[in-house]
Each structure stands twice: as C-alpha cells, then as structure tokens.
TrEMBL record:
It is found in: Cell membrane. Its main location: membrane. It comes from Saccharopolyspora rhizosphaerae. The chain crosses the membrane at residues 21-42, 48-70, 243-261, 267-289, 570-594. Residues 127-227 form the P-type ATPase A domain. It is a multi-pass membrane protein. SUPFAM superfamilies: Calcium ATPase, transduction domain A, Calcium ATPase, transmembrane domain M, HAD-like. One of its GO terms (molecular function) is ATP binding. Keywords: ATP-binding, Cell membrane, Membrane, Metal-binding, Nucleotide-binding, Translocase, Transmembrane, Transmembrane helix. GO terms for cellular component: plasma membrane. NCBIfam families: ATPase-IB_hvy, ATPase_P-type. This is Heavy metal translocating P-type ATPase. PANTHER family: CADMIUM/ZINC-TRANSPORTING ATPASE HMA2-RELATED, CADMIUM_ZINC-TRANSPORTING ATPASE HMA4-RELATED. Gene3D superfamilies: Calcium-transporting ATPase, cytoplasmic domain N (3.40.1110.10), Calcium-transporting ATPase, cytoplasmic transduction domain A (2.70.150.10), HAD superfamily/HAD-like (3.40.50.1000), nmb1532 protein domain like (1.20.120.520).
Length: 789
C-alpha cells in the first residue's frame, strides 16, 4: 500500500505548484489593473483593486507563517502578515499590493529553485526499478522488484532498468551505467560478471541471476541516501533561522521608533515592508540544496546539508588503502620463469588450472592470460587446498599453483623471484609441473591511475593533511604512501584501531574518511564526514557514510569538495548581503525617508536578487582546469591503448640486459638484443614520435600552451637518444657476430637506463595526460607484467 504521508505530501506539492503561480498571476494582475485605473484618473477604483489584491495575499501569508513555525523558522513570516495588515490599516493600498506581488513572486521563485535544485535527487528516485521479469516453470512472470529472491533467474529486456544486483547469465550484456557512474560509454559484461541494480540494458535482452534482494541492492542504498538528502537541513540554514529570532524584535523596535520619530504609523509600516525577508531566508537553503544537486550531477550523493557544510570546511582526509587508493583487486605484476620454459607457458599453465578456482588471485591470473589471448586448456581433477593453492591435471601433467615448498638448493631464478617480491611487496603464486618448480606469478594491488592527480586536487581544494589508514602490512602501505606523497600512514589497523585513529585526527581538524569495505563502516561513522566508494563498496560502508561516490574513481571527491566550499560560501554570502541591505533600508525608513510603496519595490528587488544569487550554486565553476575537446579525447584513447600494449613488451629491454650480464657471448643474447632492437625501431620509437607530433600539440592547445608538455617532450628526446645508442651497439655486435667485452658496460647502462626512463615516462603520461581521458580508470602500476622472455 502507498504510504499515506507520502500521498499527502504529493498532494500538497501538486497544490503548491498550482497555487503559487496562480497567486502570482492574481496579485500581479491586480497591481497592474490598479495602476491602469490610477493612470486614467480613477484613484478610487485603483485603491479598491489594490486593497483586494492585498487582502488576497493575507490568508496565504498566514498559512506560510504557520508552516514556517511548524518547520522551526520563527518570526519573519509574522513580519509579512504585519506589513500586509499595516498597509491596509494606514490605507497604503499600493504598498500592500506590491508586498503581495513580492510574497507571491518570492514563493514561486523559491519553489521553482527548490524543484530545479532537487531535480537530480528526485531523478534517482524516479529511476528506481520497480518491476522484474522472473522465469518460473518455463514461463516469464512479471513481479514487483521487492518480490525477487536470491537465486531467481530474471530476464532484463532492452531499455529496462536492472532491478537487483546479480550476475550475467549465459549471454553477454551491454549496459548503460551512466546513472550510477556518470560515464557515457556503454559497458559490456560477460557471463558471470557482476551487474549492479539501477543500470540500464542498452543492448538485447539478457538473463540475470539475482545475488541480492531489491532492498539490499546497490541502487536501493543510493535511493535511501537521496531521500534523506532531499529533506535534511544544514547548520547554515539554522543560522538563518536564528537570525530571525532577533530580527523580529529588532524590526518591531525600529517600527515603533519610526512611529515615534515621524509621528505617523506610515513610517512604521514602511519599516515592516522593507523588513519582509521571507524569500531572503529561503535563499540560504536554496544555495545548500543547489550545491547538493550540483554534487549529485558530479557523481556524489551528499546525505544532508550538514555533510555539505563540513565537507566544505574539511582540512584533513583519512583514506583507506585497498579499493580507495589502490584498485582493490590484485593484478599480475610479473611472470618469472625457470631457464627451461618460456614465461608465457608458465602463465598459460597457471591460468589453465586456476580456471577451476574462485580465489581472487586465481581470477587475476586467468583474467591476465585471457587479455593476452593465451589458449587455455581445461583442467581435470582440480582441487583447492586452503592456504596452499590449486592442484590438478593440465594436458596430462600434474600442475600446482600457490604456496609451494621451495627446494633446499635453490637456483638463481628462485632467489631473484623472492627478492623481487620483497622489494615490490608482491604476493607470489609458484607454479610447478610434475613436482618441479617452473616459474612464479607475482601479483600486487596496484595504485589507482586517478589517485595521484586527485590527491593534488584535494590539496588545492583546501586539504592540508592526507593520511592512509589500512589493515594491510606496513611495507606495501608505505610504498603506496611514498608514491602518492601522503603525510602519514597507519598500517595493520583493526576496525577498533581505525576508529581511534580517525577520532585522533578529528580532534585537531575537520576530518573526512574515505573507504569502501565493511571494516571501514565504523571509521566512516566516527569521522566528521564519512565518504564511501559506493560504486562497488559494501552496503555497510555506504549506510554509515555521509557522502557516497557513485563512480568507482576518486576524482569526483575533489569536485565535490570544490562544490561544497562554493555552495557554503554562496549561502553565507546570500544571508549576509540580504540582511545588510534589509537593515540599511530599515534605517532609511525609520528616518521617514522611505514610503511604504517605494519600500515594497526595494525589498522585492533585494529578495529576488539574493535568491538568484543563491541559484549560482547550481552552476559549475572554473576549477582552473581546461576542458579536453572530443578530438583530443580520441587521441588520448588511441595513445593510451597503444601504450598499454607497449607495457606488455617493455620487459624485453630489461630481460636482454639480464642476459647480457650473465653471458654476453651467448648466441641467445645476440638474438635477444635483436628482438629488443626490432621492438624499439618498429613499435616504441614510432609511438613516441607520433605522440610528439600528434598528441602533444593537441594537449598543449587544451592545457594552455607548450609549457604543459615541454618536460615530457624532453623525455621523448632522451628515449630517442638511448634507442639510437642501443641500435649502434646492435650494429657493431652484428658485425662481430657477438657482443664485445668493450660493449658490455655501456650497453648494460643504456638498456637499464632506457627501461627506467620508459617506466617513469609511461607513469607520468598516464597520471598527467591519460587520466584526462573520459574512460574507466585502470591501475597505475610501476611496470606491466612480463609474459615472454
């Protein structure tokens, strides 16, 4: 059954939407008819029309006064009633008619502003899925979304909203996730992939296996936040209400003083007329709600006005590591092989077996192998031992992947793997065939590509201290903190310790906490402002948070902070300017220099101007960043894709150097140097030169000049120089048919130097340029994994 309170609220809203414009038409028409009658020499008719217009506004003014008192706003609506009654009492009918027009126009303007400001929040509610098509006994039945249970098989038709969280069935799905993420590009989800409620089916019909009920799904949590966001009020609004508590007695005192000074009640009425600030006080919540609406369009749902105000004055940010500053899931960092086997074969064997495992590390290995288009075999007799890993038959051989026992007499490549894992804080998945170790896969949770740039913007938005809070080990936490330039690290924290750390930070500054997991929920609640990565975060963290980021990226937070600061400033500005102008006009009226009719016109202008000023919070503002045009966006996508492919082969340079340091005279070493030369000449150098001639000029135009790309252009020159040096060494070695002893030292320095320069250059481009592309954020990893040696 529908909620009776909701039904009454909807009826009242419809009535208000109809009544207020009608009252505005009536009062405006009455005022103009009176002016016409006065102009043709019929002052008696003019006064009668103006008096009727004034009387028509008194009853609505009384209703608004009662509603204001009911909502906790004291006094100012009483001034409106007194001014209307006062104009009738002293026969200032024109002033009364103008006040009536002022009240009607102010209420109409405010209602329109509130509807516009709340549009994005209400759009979420209207978008909420209500119907689901459930397969049952060979037929499809239409049921309410609330009736869907976990495990139900649903059919999502083209153009429909996904009703619950679930997994794609046998056929892939093409989805529009812009409602949740703000990303305009459609996303394809394959069989078994997770789909969140609220997204729209942009392709053909697909089957969905429900993983949650509608009330527990992603969109339901966002809707609950939106419902609260539309009704909560901020402290800055209550400041306006408190202003009314002293403004009313001051107004009455000044009105009485005017009566005493001028000896006429007309002066007192003039004071009451210019002190009628109903729309003025409504300008403050308009600014707050406008800011919340603006933030929602940027992919940030703010629970209430209090959160908006606190977000706008925060100076410290505490951030969880996993899923917030890092990708939240492991990625393959490197594949290391024994001498008798290729790295691609190690990865293929491990991925073939791990197809039978639901473990998060196994998913990362299988996903990486599939992205490299490796042909995987189906495993047999696969089993998983908790804490050890997978075991099974692949192509007739017993394969094991996971934590395996190391031989007492370890070959060099195993020590290399252990050292690399220690230095990179990576997990190791050892791979064995028929009981013999043949390789290892290193995995690590990479830093998010958008994190460095977002943290810089957060500092620009006013944050002075950035702290990481994580339950992870200290070593990987410190490495991430170093890469991102954080001010502090709290590692190996339990949920209770996280709360203590957040409270400690909150004691010295207004603090925001950003997290996405269930274990972050208590810390989010303890912070001044809790912020949840709601796109894939837990329901617990979203419910505990004051702010939810609907996109799986950090940069909307920096945008939201800028919006919050601006909205708060506009709200305070609106209140201060309106109060000052009203007090100035009241002072003039006390001296008898302002007649009621002129005062009504003046107050009308003040109120409308201040409300229009509050509506500025709806609009965007210049953050100092330039918009990247579509043509440049296309170039960014193209070169980012090329660079990702280059990362996959970048290991050739370092591998060649490793071989040279072992035995420079080997024929395999010269062949490796040949492959490296071909990679440089045919792929890397052409890519860098194309960036220099195509991408960088376009970026310079978008970013404000060639200085924006000058440093990176210098890197291109260094890459070209080192590549030419390697080419010279290769030509000399080809003449000799081997690498000479006199070449080894310089060749090693050049190869290792080029590898380091490329890693730095790629990372800087991804962070500074490719992060500007309107696309899903990938990880900011120090090196792409090796898949061939």
């Amino acid at each position: 059954m529908p909620d009776p309170r909701s039904t009454h609220q909807n009826k009242a809203s419809r009535l208000r939407r109809w009544f207020e414009p009608t009252l505005l038409v009536v009062t405006t028409s009455g005022s103009l008819v009176g002016v016409g009658a006065w102009a043709v020499g019929a002052p008696g008719i003019a006064d009668a029309v103006w008096m009727a217009t004034t009387a028509a506004a008194i009853v609505p003014a009384l209703v608004w006064m009662v509603l204001a008192l009911w909502q906790g706003r004291t006094g100012v609506d009483l001034i409106a009633v007194l001014s209307l009654g006062g104009t009738l009492a002293v026969h200032e009918y024109l002033a009364g008619a103008l006040i009536a027009v002022m009240l009607a126009s102010g209420q109409t303007l405010d209602s329109a502003a509130q509807r516009r400001a709340s549009h994005d929040l209400h759009a979420l509610l209207e978008h909420a899925p209500r119907i689901a098509h459930r397969r049952a006994k060979g037929a499809i039945e239409n049921v309410s979304a609330d009736e869907v249970r976990v495990g139900d098989l649903l059919l999502v038709a083209p153009g429909e909203v996904v009703p619950v969280d679930g997994r794609v069935g046998s056929d892939p799905a093409l989805l529009d996730e812009s409602v949740l993420t703000g990303e305009s590009a459609h996303v394809e989800r394959g069989p078994g992939d997770t789909v969140r409620s609220g997204v729209v089916n942009a392709g053909t019909a697909f089957e969905l296996v429900a993983d949650a009920r509608a009330q527990e799904s992603t969109y339901a949590g966002i809707v609950r936040l939106a419902e609260q966001a539309s009704v909560e009020r901020a402290p800055v609004v209550r400041l306006a209400d408190r202003y009314a508590t002293w403004f009313l007695p001051l107004t009455l005192l000044l009105a009485g003083s005017s009566w005493l000074i001028t000896g006429s009640p007309v002066g007192a009425v003039a004071v009451l007329v210019v002190a009628t600030p109903c729309p003025l006080l409504l300008a403050v919540p308009v600014a707050v709600v406008s800011g919340m609406s603006r933030a929602s369009r940027a992919g940030v749902i703010i629970r209430d006005g209090t959160a908006l105000e606190n977000l706008g004055r925060a100076t410290t940010a505490v951030m969880d590591k996993t899923g917030t500053l890092t990708a939240g899931h492991p990625a393959v960092l490197d594949v290391i092989n024994a001498p008798a086997i290729e790295a691609t074969e190690v990865l293929r064997l491990a991925a073939s077996l791990d197809q039978a495992s639901p473990h998060v590390l196994a998913e990362a290995i299988v996903g990486h192998a599939r992205r490299l288009q490796l042909v995987l075999s189906q495993p047999r007799d696969a089993s998983e031992q908790p804490g050890r890993g997978m075991s099974g038959i692949v192509e007739g051989d017993r394969i094991e992947v996971g934590k395996l026992a190391l031989p007492e007499s370890r070959p060099r490549w195993i020590d290399t793997t252990l050292n690399r894992a220690m230095l990179d804080a990576a997990a190791i998945a050892w791979v064995s065939r028929e009981g013999e170790l043949v390789g290892a896969v290193l995995l690590r949770d990479p830093v998010r590509r958008d994190a460095p740039r977002t943290l810089r913007r957060l500092r620009e938005a006013g944050l002075r201290r950035l702290v990481m809070l994580t339950g992870d080990r200290l070593e990987p936490a410190r490495e991430v903190a170093t890469v991102l330039g954080l001010d502090g690290v709290h590692a190996e924290q339990s949920p209770a310790e996280k709360i203590a750390s957040v409270r400690e930070e909150s004691r010295s500054a207004t603090t925001i906490m950003v997290g996405d997991g269930v274990n972050d929920a208590p810390a989010l609640a303890a912070a001044t402002v809790g912020i949840a990565m709601g796109a894939r975060g837990s329901t617990a963290s979203s419910e505990a948070a004051d702010v939810v980021l609907t996109a799986d990226r950090l940069d909307p937070l920096a945008e939201a902070m800028s919006i919050a600061r601006r909205a708060r400033g506009i709200a305070v500005q609106s209140a201060a300017v309106g109060m000052s102008l009203s007090l100035l006009a009241m002072g003039i009226a006390v001296a008898g220099l302002l007649q009621p009719a002129a005062g009504a016109l003046l107050q009308e202008g003040i109120d409308v101007a201040v409300i229009l000023n509050a509506l500025r919070a709806l609009r965007g503002h210049d953050r100092g960043e330039r918009t990247v045009p579509p043509a440049t966006q296309d170039l960014l996508h193209h070169f980012a894709s090329e660079q990702n492919e280059l990362r996959e082969t970048l290991h050739l340079i370092r591998d060649t150097a490793d071989l040279i340091s072992g035995n420079s005279r080997s024929t395999n070493v010269l062949a490796a140097l040949r492959r490296t030369g071909e990679f440089l000449d045919q792929r890397l150098v052409p890519h860098e030169r194309a960036e220099e001639t195509q991408l960088y000029p376009a970026l310079a135009a978008a970013l404000g000049g060639a200085e924006a790309t000058a440093t990176m252009s210098r890197m291109h020159a260094e890459i070209d120089r080192l590549s030419a040096r390697i080419r010279s060494h290769l030509n000399l070695a080809e003449t000799r048919r081997h690498i000479g002893d006199d070449q080894v030292e310089d060749l090693l320095a050049t190869l290792y130097g080029l590898h380091t320069v490329l890693l730095l250059h790629f990372t800087q481009e991804e962070e500074s340029y490719f992060a500007l592309a309107e696309t899903d954020q990938g990880p900011l990893s120090p090196e792409a994994p090796r898949h061939a040696r």
